[in-house]
Amino acid sequence: MKKGRYALLGALAGAGTLVVLCALALGLLLSCDLLYRLDMKLLDIPSYSGYDPETVLRNYHAAVGYLNPFKEVGTFTLPDLAVSPQGAQHFAEVRQITNAVFLLGGALLLPVAAFFIAMRRSPGRRPALLAAGTTMLALPALVLAGVALDPDRAFTLFHEIFFDNDYWIFSWDVDQVIRILPMDFFLHCAVFIALFWLAAGALSLLRAKKSN
User: Fold this and answer.
1) pLDDT (tens digit per residue) in 156-189
2) What angle do CA 154, 202, 143 make, to 5 degrees?
3) Residue partners of 40: CB distance under 8 A and separation at least 6
4) CB neighbours (10 Å) of residue 10?
5) Buried/exposed 127-165: b ≥16 CB within 10 Å, e otherwise
6) What residues have CB less than 8 Å from 138, skipping those under 6 apart?
7) Are the CB atoms for 35 and 188 separated by under 8 Å?
8) What is the per-residue DSSP string for 83-141?
9) pTM reported for the whole predicted model
10) How far apart, in whole angstroms, are the C-alpha atoms of residue 174 and residue 196?
């Protein structure tokens, strides 16, 4: 196999690794509230929202619990906060997207693992790992650059790409969940996921360098 083919295979494996790591990071975010608890203090979410910390956490756990792919759920509701039909529909669509990420990440896990195992003794190890690492570094770098340059536009563009309606534009009074989910929290989640990608890309490039 020529170097170009190894590089193409590596780039595809790198893209697949990003999906797998995205699913892993999402799983951690949904199952562990450490980042949210940190943001409760950093962003002062209780004061921002007007709710006490216990109410904030109770409703946050209910919101992320709804997105759990292993849990059967009905209509999105919260224990203390009002939710409009449009808001409930938006969370249903978010659940569909997260489920799709988990399914795709699970489907790609074995092929991606097989690629990196096979590259341990392959003559095309170096170009393949270089391409994989470059892919895993370049795409997150673009995401982080877009977020850093214009966080508001990046947030809006994400929703315009993945949703075909404006139900994600919550009213402070009608969909009170927005009070406990400030935009900066979502940006921190994006950075958390991107750090997984960057770490994997750096590791792949390091392995490629050691293969000289």
Assistant:
1) 888 899 998 999 988 888 999 999 999 899 989 9
2) 5
3) 46, 53, 56, 57
4) 28
5) bbbbbbbbbbbebbeebbeebeeeeeebbeebeeeeeee
6) none
7) yes
8) --HHHHHHHHHHHHHHHHHHHHHHHHHHHHHHHHHHTTS-TTHHHHHHHHHHHHHHHHH
9) 0.88
10) 35
